[in-house]
Design a protein that fits this description.
This protein has 627 residues and is mainly beta. The protein has seven helices and 46 strands.
Amino acid sequence: MALRERCLECQRLAQAASRTYSTASGAAASYGRRWDNFSSTPWYFYTSQTPHQAWYDDAASLSLKYDLIFQNDLQGIGIWALTYDQGTTELWALIESKFALPQPPEPPTVSAPATFFNTVGLPLAIHERGSIPAAGFEVAAGTSPGGLEVSDFKAVGLRHQVLLKDLALKSGATYYVMARSVGQEGVVSAPSDPVAISIDASGSTIHKYLPYWISNSDLYTGLAIANASQGRRAVWIRSHTPGQNAADTTWVLEPWQQFAKLVSEPDLLGSDVIGKEGWLEIVYQGDGLQAMYLIGDNQVSRSLSGSPLLDAALRQVIPELDGGRTQMYVANPGSENATIQFKLVGTHGQLAAKSITLNEGEMLVARVDPLFPDFKRLVSPGDSAFILAESDKPLVCTSTLQRDFDSAAVPALDATQLRQSGAFSYFVVGGGYQSQAVLINPTNESQTVQLHYSLGGVPAGITVTFIGMGSVMIDLGGLTGDRQVSGAVEVIGSSGSGVLGSIWIRSEDYRIMAALPLESGGSKSYVIPQLAQAQGYWTGMSISNPGSGACDVTIEALDTSGSLVGTHTIPNLKPGETKVGLIYEWIRSTLGMSSGTVKVSATAPVLVAEIFGNDSLTFMASVPAKQ
């Protein structure tokens, strides 16, 4: 395709003369550059004794012509003559931008765990470098540094966390992974330095579960995991969706690094899960990983519930049934079918039972009252009732309390993990709020427990006795005289094997609600794997001192990389005293953070709960801090 770098200048009597590009562009700047839409060509006009028109090509018109090269698969261009630009550079720059191969990105760096616990694949994290952005990545693996014996380079898109699969790996072997960046027009960088990963499938692993996730136009599910250990960790994340094969990925976390992602984000499960629901399995080795989930509405206007990830168990309790409105979620993570017997238990013992078979990988989502159609006849309004779920295979179970404007996650309680002493880490009554505690005795023996709390710094308490296989509902507002009080409640057993419990915190009109389980006693150290102080969300904390002496408390906020953002100290927290505040009030530098980690340390055991909400106070969620 031949082009010109000359200008045709025509006079009124159809006389024509040529001008170089440098002359024409300078004249257009003087007389006023015009544009002809029909020919997509610049021109200018002037009068010198007679009218003159000058038509020429500049970078704008040549750019359109160059586009025709690619649209029509032509072989190139020819120009007469580029020297006519006489020192101007825009035409050369245009040729370079249109036809020159782009510079490749710099090679990325790769991090991976020294050892991985499964032959499913090789986990690695890819870190971009340099100023030229990557359009994607390719990964490869070999049995020697730089080798490609296991897998040649394969495209993984823009995923920064990759599980390289289908490799026929062997336990006891060591492999080397590499990555390279792909730039514009397919140019690739040099490979990264190889990183060794040894496969050892003989060790024990920890399995945690998110019993239910959903991703659609109304609701999202977010997952947050923080590595509170001193070593690099790989987390294997497996998603199970009804009627589909399990999807999986991995995440490599440096010490104190954290991630908080929606399940539909590319580095997690990706867009394939949009419009679906299912359950998640999180597998890792070693201590120090803390994880939680939140389910909320995409408009940040209503409904938020959350919980730490759960364990599978054979005998579990759904503690709060809310007149039969409670929604249950049960997943079978095993490789065999499981038989479950749901027992409806009231204040004075078992009322009804129902058996269900759950296939391997299957999930049950059911409201309580359809599961037990006679619920309203069997359980009188205001009476306490719970469900005991007993199965022949370990299952994962949770529930939600659902009203028109908000919901609260109430995880099932392992009936083998009884508390002879424990605490509800937060309650609030008065000022438009109510707190309702439920204590459950899943044994066949009668038990007596004492509840201790503080009323404005003055110790108070009650004693509760209930029969075997029974429960007691306690309105904390009634105990405090409906005065405005917040804090923690200690539960101490004076007889029996121990109890389970849950507390439901809500506004009087049920517009906002949250729930917390009965936990073990306080701790000197906690890690909370998520904070959100941006995009309409806020994060608050409750810190209570259940001890007999004063203590000092330090709160640290970390960003997703594990770097310290800020610190707040609560000196001399008195016995029975509770401090409640928003994170950004205590650590101003957390404003604008959409994810991060909170560390709490104290000189004596304290009780800690995290509270999420939105700026318009239309929902609330609480998550117990993990020791």
